Structure formats: structure tokens, C-alpha cells
Amino acid sequence: MKLLYCDLETFSEVNLKTHGTHAYAEQAEILLFPYALDDGEVKCWQPGYEIIPDELYAALLNDIITTVWQNGGMFDLTILNHAGFIYGIPPLPHSRVFDTMACALAHSLPAGLGVLGDVLGVKEDKAKHKTGQKLIQLFCKPRPKNSELRRATRETHPVEWQQFIDYAKADVSAMREVYKKLPKWNYQPGGFEYDLWLLDQKINQRGVAVDIDLARGAVASADKAKVSLAKRANEMTNGEVNAATQRDALLKHIFEEYGIPLPNLQMATIERRLNDPDIPEPLKELLKVRLQASTTSVSKYNTLLRAVSPDGRLRGLLQFSGAGRTGRWAGRIIQPQNLMRPTLKQPAIDLGVEVIKADACELFYDDVMEVVSNCVRGCFIAPPGRKLVVSDLANIEGRVAAWLTGEQWKLKAFREYDAGIGPDLYCVAYGKSFGVDPHNVEGRERQIGKVQELMLQYQGRVGAFVTGAATYRIDLDVMAAEVEKTVPGEVWEESQGFLDWTIKQKMPTYGLSDKVFIACNALTVLWREAHPMISSYWKELQNAYITAVEHPGTTITARMLKFRRDGAWLRIRLPSGRCLCYPSPKVEEGVCSYMGTNQYTKQWERQLTYGGKLFENICQGVARDVMAYAMPEVEEREYQIVLTVHDELITEAPDDEEFNVAELSNILSKGNDWTGDMPLAAAGFEAYRYRKE
User: How many CB atoms neighbour CB 515 within 10 A?
Assistant: First the structure.
């Protein structure tokens, strides 16, 4: 006996979706514990009605037996280690867990057991699955408050209860077959990625300390601001709109009152209109009210308050390998990876934290909602006697891109900057594009270089540049007028030709004027000309993909990477040894595709890819690996990781000089045996409250 396949069916008064696993687990009870030993019969223990079977108890206590769960690390073990003591079950260490969901995500497969089974060819009775969902609704969730029967149990619903047992046992059977069919290149006990998953579980169980007073104050401030904004919207529309959040009513009023047909009331649309000098001031004020009222960051405070544990720590914020193909961490609960970019300077945010907690926000700030949104990060704090030590890998994707492709001038520029003898890379990017001394690049020119660097290295063109320009608040009309004077004539003509072709092909021009479109494309052309090794790599990667798909079992080398298709899998081996996985790859008339989870629909669908997209996956995957390989040493040095945000580590450490950002940054950026001569750097800060540097 080596494997114990397990699952839990549970009940809690707490809503799992809105409160997170840890808040749920604090009030959870175990209803059913289906299990199977190796290939033996699937059985089911009913904790509320039976003593634990001897064979199950013995297996749970046997250190040489690996337990297999679907989402066991984040969910089942959290429940078991909260509620298991009632039945004499000691805490089960994560080191004895194989998590099929984590394994699936590590290979770019869907997380859900049902979809995962479909993908791997595990037969499942769909009708039975639908019945199972109804049974979960019946037994695992509280009845409506007005219901005469508060809980459905074995006594109240004996027939359904037996069906519930059958369903639970079927899930274990399906999981067992899934386990056998799952690839395990990137996740198996004893390997680096499995050990990293163990560390991830430790981080999630540890959690991060939260300033509950700030969160409560922010909610209260936002609630008062919403009332005030609704009143202003009502007054400004002569009673036609009761609140600025009423989109359709507001669009109707704007059209009827001002004759302006807005396509929507999204932030980008409103900001463009606010910059239009021809828009009447009353309409501008109304649009500003709409912007304030539609701020969504406030919901994060409510979620935080629901999910925080009684000890003041928020747990379960990270999903191992949850960010699609790259292996990066994804956010859970309040989605820390998607916190809004600050619009206020840090001193204003620091003051905002204090006035929010003092219930005096409206006294100091006209736009209360903006302040509240900017202070979300500030909810993450260090407990007494400790501090946050934070470090972020500097421009890691740009460094990885230059290293993988052999873009030597850029590698040299990174090294010179790190040594303190060269300008930053945004200045270098602009200087290289326009043939000017990067030491003389500053202000708006540096911002243009920044957008070029961040948005164009993955084969992006005008649309990508415009997106970046909006993020960094570049006035495109002003930029276009300046760029037109400095762009070589042949590049401007080439970009004019691209605009003509775009219009002819009925492709999007993003609502841009001709001059702005041409200017954005010209900046794209100049960046590509300055980066011949990167630009040529896009085609090389696409060709490697095509060749590997068309010649199964053959290893194709593309500079530092290796492509290979075996059966239904195409794998790209990264320098770390980890593989990016592309299930069911296909090439039709030169178009590359694979099966994956659509990030918008969340459905398992065929996805298109191309050289630039492959390069993005690869660079982000390598960047993730650079950070991942540093994390064990970070922990060994007693910097306790509480959160990761993209390429940034947030750690908690004793509040003394021995623990400092210089040491943490050195650990994060010193590299390892596979990073070779990649230029790495990291920087950060020490604080008692998290912020965006």
C-alpha cells in the first residue's frame, strides 16, 4: 500500500466563494470522507454517524503513505487540520500530499476535476455529475434563512444522502484515474517544483497581517462618499439619474442633454473625453462623478474583512502555478496581483491611511474614492516587533528577453546600469530608437521609452503601445506631434503604408487619428530595428513550434530553448529544466494553436498562438523561475514570505538591522547554476505597511 486517495464533503455556515477557505474552515464540519487504498474498493466514512475505519486511520497515520487529493493542499487539508482533531486525526503534513489540481495547473491543464477528466479521457456520467451538484447544494450549504428546515441531513433526506455517498465515491474513482493519467514532468515528490509547492502551502497557511481598522474605515468612508456622489449625480441631472453608477440612465442623459453619444462609460472612454477641450465643464464634472462612483477597489476591503482570520491574518492569497502557461502565481480572494496602480504620491497615500482610520477622509480629500482605492495595499502590515522587507526583480522580463536572445548591446546596458555607470533602460530604449544620447533622455521621452520596453518586446504593435500609453498617461496627440519631427522619413512613410493596409483589411485603428496611429507604429518600427536579436527570435520560435508539431519525437533547438512534441503534448524546456506545456498542439496553414483555458470565458478551448506570444510565455516563465529558485534561501535566512506579487517578494522579518532590504535583494538577484551570465538586479524597501514603490 503506497497511495491513499481521499476527498472531503463538508458543511459550513460560511460562504466559501465570498470568504475564502480559511474563514470557511473555521466553522466547517466533515460530512463524508470517501477514500480508496491503491486500486482497492472506494469506501466512504460518515464522521457524524460512524467511528473512523481502522484502515483509514492507520493509513492517515502512516508516514510512508502518500495521500492524493484534488485541491487537497488549499482546501481539504485546511479543513482536515481544523476539524480532524474531533475524530482523533492529527494534522496531516503537506509533505504527504499529492495535489492533482496543483499537478494539473503545473502542466497548463484545467483545475476542475470534471473538465480535467474530460481532457484526460476519464469517463464520467454527466447526469450523475449534475445530480451531485444538486446534492452538494442540499447538504453542504445552509438552507435559506426563511426555510423551516435549517439543515438537510441523513435523517431528513435518507434517499438523497445515499446518492450523496455514491457521488462522493465516484469523485474519488475519477480522481484516481486522473492521477494515473496526469503528466508529472513539472510536479512530482522529490522534485524542485513539488518542494516549491510545499513552500507555497507554507506561505498560504502563514498568511499576511492585516490592518482591520484601515479596512473598516475605508468601507465606511466609501459608503459615505457613495451617498454624496449619488446626491451630486441626481442634482446635476435634474433628478433624471439617481446615482452615477446607473450606466444606461447616465448615457441617456448625456446624449439628450449634451448631444454626445458615448459608446460606454469605461474609464478609458471617460478619460479621453475629459481631455477633450470641447467638452462642456458641467459634463466634465458629471463624468468625474461617474469615475469616482465606479471605483471597484472598495470591494476588496469588504472581501478582506470577510476572509481575515480571528488572529488578524489573511490566508490563502496565492494559487500555485495559477497564471496560465507561465507557472507564475495567481491571486486569490482579493487578487493581490491585480491591485490598482497608485494615482497618488506616497505621502498623500500615507496621509490617506491616517485620515481614513480617523474617519476624516472627506475633510482632507475631494475625491474620497480615489484615496480609498490607493490605500488598499496599506492593509497589509507587519505585526508588532516585525517589519516588512520587500524586494522586486528589476525589469526582469527585459533582462530575460535580452539574455535568451543574445541582444548583446542591451545586456551591456543592463550591466552598466547595475554598476552605476549607465542610464536606465527606458532612456536607453528611447535613445537607441532615435539615435540620441540616452543620458540626455528625460521626462516624456523616457516615458515613451518605458512604454516601448514594456509593450513591444512580445511582437506588439500599435494596440499594445496605445494600451501602455494609457497606463502611463502619455498624451498621444502631443507625443505624435513631437515624434513626427524626429522619426526618419522612411519610417514615417512605412508607417503610413501600414495604416493604409490596416484600413484596407478592415482591421482596428483603435479610434486614433491618422497621425497618432502612424506615430505609434513608427515607434514600434524603431524599437524593432534597435532589437534585431529579439525581433528575429519571434519567427524562430514560431518555426520551432511548427517543426516540433510536424515532427513528433524530434527535439528542436531555438537558441537556449528546446521544443519537442510527444503524443498530445508539446513541451518547451526552459533553462531551469521546467517545461512550458501546450496540450494538443496543432498547425493549420501556418497558424499555431493548442488547447487551453480561455482567460475570459474560463472554458477549455482551442487557443491561437504566434512567435511573440510564445516569447511572452517563455520570458515570464523564466522570470518566474528566477524568483522561485531564490525563495527557498529567502526562507532559510528567516525572511518569512507572506506574499508574492508578479516578480516581487513581500516578506516579514524581525524589526532589527540584521534583516534588511539589501540582503533580501542580494538573495533574490544573485542567480543560480542555470542563470549563467544573466544580469540580475533587485531593489525594494523596508516598512511597516506595504506600498507600491
Answer: 17
CA angle 124, 127, 130 (to 5 degrees): 100
Domain extent listing, the chain: 3-182, 212-314+341-374, 386-395+620-687, 408-530
Q: 3-state SS of the chain: helix, strand, coil percent to 5?
A: 50, 15, 35
Nearest to 207 by CA among 76, 304, 106: 304
Question: Which residues sit opposite 44 in a β-bridge?
Answer: 34
Cβ count within 10 A of residue 651: 29
From the list 132, 136, 133, the residue with the least C-alpha distance to 170 is: 132
Assess whether pLDDT exceeds 60 at residue 280. yes
Mean pLDDT of 541-550: 97
Closest CA to 545 of 598, 615, 605: 615
Between CA 389 and CA 684 the distance in angstroms is: 8
Please write the tens of the pLDDT for every residue from 481-514.
988 888 999 999 999 999 999 999 999 998 899 9
At residue 573, the 3 state secondary structure works out as: strand
3-182 placed in CATH 3.40.50.720: no
**Nearest one of 596, 646, 612, 606 to 626, comparing CA atoms:** 646
CATH of span 386-395+620-687: 3.30.70.370
Q: What is the 3-state secondary structure (H, E, C) of 587-642?
A: EECCEEEEEEECCCCCCEEEEEECHHHHHHHHHHHHHHHHHHHHHHHHHHCCCEEE
8 Å CB contact between 655 and 385: yes
> Residue 7's closest CA among 125, 183, 140?
140
CA gap 116, 178 in Å, rounded: 7
